[in-house]
What does this fold into?
Amino acid sequence: MTEVLLTPSQTSGPYLEIGLLGGPITNRLVDGSDPRAIRISGVLLDGVGDPVPDGLVEVWQANAAGRYAHPADDREDVPLEDGFTGFGRSGTVDGGRFELVIVKPGRVPWVDGRLQAPHLLVGVFARGLLKRVATRMYFPDEKAANAEDPVLLGLGPEERATLVARAEDGGLRFDIVLQGNGQTTFFAV
Amino acid sequence: MRPETTAFSRIPDAALTGTDPPLLYPDYVGTRLRAPKSPLVLLPSSLSELTGPVYGDGALAETDADLTRQHAGEPLGERITVTGRVVGSDGKPLPGQLVEIWQANAAGRYRHAVDTHEAPLDPNFTGWGRCLTDEGGTYRFTTVLPGAYPWQNHPNAWRPKHIHFSLFGRAFPERLVTQMYFPGDPLFPFDPIFNSIRDERARQRLVSTFELGLTRPDWALGFRFDIVVGGREATPLEEPHDD
It folds into this structure.
């Protein structure tokens, strides 16, 4: 077997804003005027409940039809959407608060062909995180799909609850708790 | 029909045996209240994890990769070229990869409101760069050698000179943010972030090499930093089974 010599991770540190914000990747996966647009906001919190103001939240998602804009998703019966990359990021410089404008992704198959509920993959960086942590966000108005989602079904009720956003002010609220009470469920992916 | 349940393995982060540092590394004080402590849930890779951001053909300006030409004048400091190849864990080059970097200026100061180090800002240096790898997976930046700087982790703590790097790899699990260091830095033994990588050989992979052949005579010194992105290393997965 070939020896794998991966480059190890290091923390983004507190100044990630310089390099990762203000560039071509924004927090708007679609324009706010898109009738399908959903605003997600949340706060990144540490182990004593303090907001983390030097973090970055990234999301990766399928389009509204349920197709990823990536060569590994070659299901030609599901349409791609011109200009939709499925990727966005938000800093948490505003008192730990992040905000993203997305569309609800369609359902995509799991490893055994069952459909997953609509979900976003979420990655978090910050000072004090020596590597990215990864989680998922699900939608509160998808009760039936969530109830048969293969990933949610594999979790305990308390773990599951940390992954479902809640409706707030016409958008969705999704806090991410790095440590302690109510810690968000994180995945090794 | 009753939904089928898959039991996921859970693994404490500290038991992961990859090259990455652990989430909790108390010598780096910032990890103490931020490192998740519940075991990680091991997910098999579905289409969601087999895919990931593709930057595509988004336009970048030429000066995005030259941090010395983003202002009216030139920044102070030693001008350097930093270049290398981005490859996957199979050794194949990754073309079209978005590489993002950020760094302190030559005096060791970041252009950021949170950085209060009493070293001068440089009006001609912001400290960010972006480029796409070419067909052979090669990226190239022109910048200045960043300075070392003090931080508040412990008394008299100083960070070795470094440049932050961000890469995407081929799929979501391969996302990598890391730091490139410079050869022979005397601060290595004292830096908890560098030493959070427990494997000495893995740690050394973050140290760039000086290459005379990369220097541009009468212009800039040259450093090589090759990057291998591959996501999670061999970790056990349980096969799905009927509950």
About this structure: Chain A has a mean pLDDT of 96.
